[in-house]
Amino acid sequence: MDDNLLDKQATFLTLDLDDRLLRALGRMGLVHPTLVQSSAIPLALSGKDILARAKTGSGKTAAYCLPVLHKILATKDALPQTSSSRRLTRALILVPTRELAEQVTKYLADLTLFCGKDIVCVNIAGNTPLHIQAPLLAELPDIVVATPARALKHMAGTLDLRALETLVIDEADLVLSFGYEDDIRGIIKALPRIHQSMLLSATLNRGVEALKALVLSSPAILKLEDDQEEAAKLVQYVVRCSEEEKFLLTYVILKLKLIAGKCILFVNDIERSYRLKLFLEQFSIKACVLNSELPLNSRYHIVEEFNRGVYDYIIATDESDKMGEADNEAEEEEDQVQVQEAMEIDQETKPEAEATEATEGTEDGQKLTAEEKLKKKKKAAKKTSKKRKASQDKEYGVSRGIDFKGVAAVINFDFPPSARSYTHRVGRTARAGRRGMSLSLITSEDIKSPSAKHHQKEEAVFERVILQQRKKSAEILPYKFDMKQVEGFRYRSTDALRLVTRTAIREARIKEIKQEILNSDKLKAHFEDKPRDLQFLRHDKALHPSQIMPHMKHIPLYLVPKIAGIAQADGVATAPDIGFVPFNKDTKRKRIYKKKGGKKGGDPLKSLGKKRRK
Ligand SMILES: Nc1ncnc2c1ncn2[C@@H]1O[C@H](COP(=O)(O)OP(=O)(O)OP(=O)(O)O)[C@@H](O)[C@H]1O
Questions:
Q1: What does the alpha-carbon distance between residue 69 and residue 412 come to, in Å, rounded to a whole number?
Q2: Which of 147, 329, 365, 598 is buried most deeply by CB count within 10 Å?
Q3: Is the pTM here over 0.80, yes or no?
Q4: Mutation test of ligand 1: which of 14, 60, 68, 174 has the most ligand atoms closer than 8 Å to its C-beta?
């Protein structure tokens, strides 16, 4: 973690934490607390309610987990070994998504490594049936991690919170926007009158204010966002290009390895994630998709493996808009109407690019009128979308809270639906004080085009993002590149895109789900006892292997730009006459080139091209 995020004046030792926790922290390599930790922990230990706003990746999880654990250990130490009061559920941690619940539970397991059986923590956020989870709760675990809806369901049965001492709501604003407010109200009603509460979030909005009134009493308010410092760590770029050019640019950036390191590519719906994956895999660029349709175990495993460095690219579907997350209610309503309109117009006027796939006649061979065809299409689309919604996980979320480690760049392949969602997406990089980069692609379209409203919406959100970033003294720089340099790749990209038909996407989607259900079953059986056995399970397998073109794997030398790259992750721009500004230094590549006797400042990619041609 970056030194600026840490409170160098303090160590965990000076925070007077339980020895068992200090040992675990030492083992995790944590010596100094972060600012949010050194501020929140003493206040929490003194019993104060807390409302903390600190930026993404600033260590909020430990800021609430450590005091929760310390308090439970202290209470238990004061009780005789035989006391029945040693077994009571004392803390409830509410999070908006299952992924986050899993992450928090793992974090608690790391922190309690030296606590033996003194701390039992149960995660009930998974989709295991209630009756299977019930016996775990009947044992009265010390800490329960849950989504609000799940907790409330169990409260009608075995979740006994009469002895609750601490309530934590992590990612408070998202908890609200996911529509959990009524669940929270239900939970609060059933809690003992005296308990401590903590609300944590990277962003605070009116909703959180409402929650504050509901949950907290005379809280200590911590606002620890150092916006200017955050701005310096994250370099943000934007580019306006056509829909087709989005694919072209992504191909060029990934193929030329202009991003050194791991990258998350965000798209707005599941279909798009498969479209992008199928496109990239034709060039032998491997990526995992991550979306709410995949089984929970597979999702955990993908994130874990990505964090371990097994995969470089994740195509993540950010479904935050479908979870009700927008900048505010009015904007949300306006946004939904606009998208709906744009989609309707789109459907009515879309050129029949995939005409071969459309049904041209009825079963008895009669020709359908254009109007009838349209009606039929709409009906079919509604049906599939209903079916799909049913199979998607309402408590899925990847743009928030998940600790993706070491992400060099975030690419908003689709522009996010709200400014808030933008903050959280770009918050997946430049975490824990590290540097990072984001690139957002906005579709530029003719104002008369049928989907113009959709693009207007993107522009409207972008305006809000600019204002939001300006408040943090951050700028979103235009992503400068010389289209001529990219031009040579265009025909390959167009060819590849042509093969990504709706049928191919549909088939890929089904294949992936089947594959992941099998993976998930294996994961379920082995997760606890043999985690190492699972390393052979890959989530980035090609979905349409017959379409991989071996010749597309390599880039011929004549296509490699003289000085390739776009914008550096550390924000250092190259000389202006280059035109095509590098994404990052790619020092490793330069090193290889120098080792081979290349001139300093020469073109490392040229040598790479030569090597590839051999
Ligand atoms: N005191 C510390 N020293 C070094 N690293 C730390 C410290 N505390 C936390 N970290 C690391 O920083 C990373 C981010 O922590 P965490 O996920 O708790 O952030 P967060 O503020 O909850 O982010 P988000 O808002 O996105 O959920 C984690 O990898 C964590 O292990």
A1: 38
A2: 147
A3: no
A4: 60
